[in-house]
Amino acid sequence: MLQSKLFPGSLKENPKDEKSVSAKYLIRAGFVDKVMAGVYTILPLGWRVLDKIEDIIREEMNAIDGQQVFMPALSPQENWRKTADRLNKIDVLFEARGANDESRRRNDATYVLNCTHEDVVTPLAKKMRFSYKDFPFALYQIQTKFRNEARPKSGILRGREFRMKDLYSFHRSEAGLKKFYEKSKVAYTNVFNRLGIGEETFITLASGGDFTKDFSHEFQTECEAGEDLVFKVKSTGVCYNREVTPSQAPEFKSEEEIKKMELIEGKGIIGVKDLVDFLKIEIERTTKTLVYKNEKGEFLLAAVRGDYEINEEKLCKVVRAERVELARAEEVKKLVGAEIGYIGIVNVPEKVKVIMDDSLKGRINFEAGANKTNYHVVNVNFGQDLESPKEFFDIKIAKDGDLFPATGEKYEVFKGAEVGNIFPLNTKFSEAFDYRFTDKDGSKKIVYMGSYGIGSTRAMGVIVEKLHDERGIIWPEAIAPFKVHLISIGKNEEASKLYEKLQAEKIEILFDDRDISPGIKFAEADLIGCPYRAVISAKTLEKGKLEVKKRNEKEVEFLTEEELLKRIK
Ligand code: ATP
Ligand code: MG
């Protein structure tokens, strides 16, 4: 490719409205263009990279017997109603409808703009495959997804429109699903190794949602621009997404003597920050108590140390609820006789269940809401002012500094960008669409399913986040837009010959044939980030050689054409 012809050519300024390195470099170097928040055009340079990323993904999906399809972006609302009313429950779901009267006169239907494809692929599979002989099988696509994300962030890392490889597997049994699921982990590991981010990408246990009691598995790349927090157990290497991290609070030690409980008036003092200032105590002495209601309308109190938040998913597991939600102000008042903000774990009406987090364990002289409007109590002690609970639980959101309960070791905590996610769906979607197969003995049995996603555009952004320096991108060879960036300094004729020769050898080459200063050419070559830079100038020609530099190395070498060819082949 001649750089003089390349669309659009690099920009000179950093885009002002982008904070992440990947967005800055990808926009400035002309890989992508921002259309609006969360929506990007992939430009020729970007498409060359994305195409290679998706080729690698495709190869690995084919290797586990995935068959490629291409499903539509639009789907009927009806499908999404069937799957436990996901039409009304998925908070990022977009719809599409005729934009004006004339269009709506032709057809006034409203469609879903797909954010994922379980709701499309399950009826497809059901239509085609229903004998035990047909299983297992897996379908995948690489396709555009639409999600109404609250905060598109970091360029193509979180878009409202983005590309994803999504594979769906179908099995006769849970055991069959599990076997394929393990194979998919290997395939995913291969993908991220080949993309050059394998070393920093960790299989991370995450919530199984309402599909399974087991975990799902995320592929989290350690990355400052990532939006997830990963907790790694150093002794075993096991990683947890924050949402499911088992956590033990480091104990809050105090050498004080046990004091007598005191009722303190603190009108309008609500929340731990206020309490810390007002009572002049450490935040670890405060107690956060919230009133929840489960799906049956039963109330419970949940309490954590003031420096923690409650993890509702953990709470659900502890109290065996399908879901919990915060009780409304009037419900709280009725239940404990005080207003929200003054709720505590002392003087709790007997019938109310209290779930205490283990961060409350071992504290002395702590604070709690008094269950009396405008009042708090201080110097509260277990055994003295309330009974020591029979059991403490883990219902908190883990934070940096927490310990892994099984071994007591401190987690290593890092930010992660989720580049992939695999899910044992089990029978959630097959039940919804009544997808059964006929077994050998003629009986009808439910199909087991798994789903497996990789964000290819996000992966492209993450690779830039990981592989760059202060001058620009450093693409791994497998996905670089071009292998060689040829730069001529005033010697276009000789350079043209070499360009043609390398092209004839099927080497992907970008030739900077522009009549501009060498300084700009070098700067743009570093910004674009091809693995090899080869310079032809009067100086190099004198030696009968080219000046060759790898993008990720400092040293230049002088090589003949033949030596260069040998090196890059
Ligand atoms: P996140 O937690 O980051 O919102 P998710 O868990 O909702 O992602 P999945 O439904 O598991 O995402 O989608 C599969 C993959 O698609 C993700 O692992 C991620 O790589 C990618 N992906 C998801 N949402 C986006 C987005 N808004 N922009 C770009 N890629 C995305
Ligand atoms: Mg996910």
Structure report:
This protein has 569 residues and is α+β, with helices and mostly antiparallel strands. The protein folds into three domains: 280 residues, BirA Bifunctional Protein, domain 2, CATH 3.30.930.10; 119 residues, YbaK/aminoacyl-tRNA synthetase-associated domain (YbaK protein); 87 residues, Anticodon-binding domain (Rossmann fold, 3-Layer(aba) Sandwich), CATH 3.40.50.800. The protein is 27% helix and 28% strand. The chain is built from 16 helices and 32 strands. Strands 9-10-22-11-12 form a five-stranded mixed β-barrel. A five-stranded mixed sheet has the order 29-28-30-31-32, with helices on both faces. It has a four-stranded mixed sheet with strand order 16-14-15-17. The longest helix has 21 residues. It starts with 20 loop residues before the first helix and ends with a helix. The model has no long low-confidence stretch (mean pLDDT 96). The site of adenosine-5'-triphosphate (ATP) has 15 residues, from strand 8, strand 22, strand 25 and helix 12.
